[in-house]
Specification:
By secondary structure, the protein is an alpha+beta fold. Helices cover 27% and strands 32% of the residues.
Length: 313
Amino acid sequence: MAEGLKMFHARHEGKNNKIIPIAEIGPEDRTELLCQYCNAKITWVDSYKRSGRTVLSYLRLRPNAEHAEKCKNRVKSAIENLVAHSQNVEYDKQIFDNNNAGFIFRMNVLIDATFDLSKSKKLYEEEKDPIEKERKRTSYRQIENKLADYFNSATGIAKIRAKIEESSDKKALSKMVKIQINKKEVSWNDFLYDEDRYPILFNKAEKIKHPVAIALTVKSASELILKSKKPFFTLKGEACHVDIEKNLKDYYSPVLNTQYENILDDLNPNDEIIIVGTLKTKTKTNHFMHITYKNLIFWIKNKKQFTKIDTCL
């Protein structure tokens, strides 16, 4: 297997190098696919199940093929592109810092902006004076936009990691991008969790004091839950199961909740996504089925907290 990111678009040699999404690639097309950004030959990988979760079809380099040096499907180029995009946003604080070895992802910037937004929202909602309320509404919207950009950077760097297959690329990423909270390093294993590591995330959830990222496959579209003190929308991801003992299983199920209407509307069954946020857990046992459901719950306040894996930056 060659180095490079999982791909979801390709150029077709036999169709004048037309760029086509993976959903439009038929079996007859698969021998004539090139990387979207360079002339590297790529191949199709069929969908498969892993720990109960569906991993959708994707594209990767053919054996012995190699991306061009500056191709956006190389890990280094993808990171540099994301950092440049993030630093084009003119805020008082940047979420990425440069150092001699690469970049520092400053997670405390994301945490601070989340806190500032909650504080600003409260001040805006409690204000009675019309003129002052309008000023605070403007301030709230500015902080909301800032947080959206920070989340966009956080989901972007997590998505790059989720699209890496080769261990050499994983090592390169961990060397190029360090994660810090107030100058204290956070390992990549403590930030991003795929389905194989849902049990680890669930077991250490109470000790985690920072946002985390998980990869999930959407199981069903969002639905409105009215039987609650405050109605909310919920969306479930495909559960990953672990055999505990004979006739007994734990199902680790990711759940997205929000009180904001329409925020989950763009997510559909079988979408593979990355979600970044703070985590809560809940356990429910079905004694008749001999199943324990262990929910990984994320409350969504901003649409930029999630991104589809098959989209570009």
